[in-house]
Design goal:
The protein has 148 residues and is mainly α. It has 2 domains: 75 residues, no CATH class; 53 residues, no CATH class. It has a two-stranded antiparallel ribbon with strand order 1-2. α5 crosses α6. The radius of gyration is 22 Å and the shape is elongated.
């Protein structure tokens, strides 16, 4: 389990940070989850582009690696619309969230680059610290409203 900090006000209107426990999801064991990563990535990108299941299923089931996984774990039963629907609600959503986290990290890295130019070659950790402190200040201000 991971710990996640949460910033809030206590009963005395003081800013405090609480640590909450996040439950890690169990490893996925469905047909699509057992496919090699590169196939899942390709599928997720196609889903993100709005491709429909009726065009994805024939492609996905025709791949040799897919057939190998299905033969090994599912008695050769093909991936069907229900499997794809379950993937959209689980693995695909996790992938989308991961993509959003990567976008945020790229944004922070871009901001850090700007600090490097302004900071005359400051260390990367110092630049990132500056960006994260600024982001934290904005988040606290948004959380507390005009009380700051």
């Amino acid at each position: 389990m991971r710990k996640s900090p949460k910033i809030m006000k206590n009963e005395n209107n003081q800013i405090v940070m609480k640590t909450t426990t996040l439950n890690q999801p169990a490893a996925r064991t469905g047909k699509i989850a057992r496919l090699p990563r590169h196939i899942r990535e390709d599928l997720n990108e196609r889903l993100q582009q709005g491709k429909e299941g009726k065009s994805l299923l024939p492609w996905l089931n025709s791949l040799e690696a897919t057939q190998d996984v299905l033969d090994l774990h599912f008695d050769g039963a093909p991936i069907n619309a229900q499997n794809l629907s379950e993937w959209r609600q689980g693995g695909y959503r996790e992938w989308l969230a991961d993509q959003q986290r990567r976008d945020v990290l790229r944004h922070v890295a871009d901001q850090a680059q700007g600090f490097e130019e302004a900071g005359e070659g400051a260390r990367m950790s110092d630049r990132l610290s500056s960006v994260l402190v600024a982001e934290l200040a904005v988040s606290i201000h948004a959380l507390l409203g005009d009380g700051l």
